[in-house]
Amino acid sequence: MSRTTTIPTGIKKRDAIATRAAILSAARQRFLRESYDSVGLRDIAGDAGVDVALISRYFGGKEGLFRDVLLHDKDEGLLRQPLTAAELPAYLAQLVIEDGDEDRQHRMEMFIVMLRSASSPKAGEVIRDLVHLDVLGPLAEIIGDEHAELRANMLLAILMGIGVLRTIMKVDALDGSPAQRAECEYRFRCLFEAALTC
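Predicted structure:
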C-alpha cells in the first residue's frame, strides 16, 4: 500500500506570505539606500534569501515590486474621511499636530525612496501615479475650484516640508504641552488657509 504525503495548504500559504514579506523588506532596504535604476532584482533576491524568479511570481517584476514597497503598510491615505474645503485647513493642522513618530518615520522613509528614484522614467511614473491617486487627486476634488490642482500641490509641499523638518532634520518645536500644541495647531491652520485662499 503506497502512502502519499500531502502538505497542508496552510503551510504553503504561510511560506508564500513569509517569502513575499522577506522580498518586500529586502527591496525596501535596497530602495532606501539606492536608486531604482541601481537596484537589481538579483541583489534583492540575495538579500531576501530567495530565488530571483519568485520576485516575478509575486510582484510581476521590478516595477510591481517598487509599487508594492511604496504601498506596503501604507495607511488608508491622507484623506480618510469626507471633508469640505472649509474643513480642510483644520483637518490638516490636526494631522500635523497628532502625527505620531512611528507613522511620520515610515512616511519619511517612503519619501526618501521616492526622492532617490524619481529621476527614473519607470519609477517616476509609479511615484506620480501613487501621489496623484492618494493625495493630489483627493485634495483637488475637495478644494473643487478652478485652481484646485495648484492649491493641492501647495498643500502637499507644505506637508512634506513639515515632515522633512520634523523627521529628517529633527527640527521640531512641539514639546507636547497642551498650550504649545494649541498654538501650533492654530498657526498650521492659518498656513493651510493661506495656501487655499491666496
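Summary: The longest helix spans residues 9-33.
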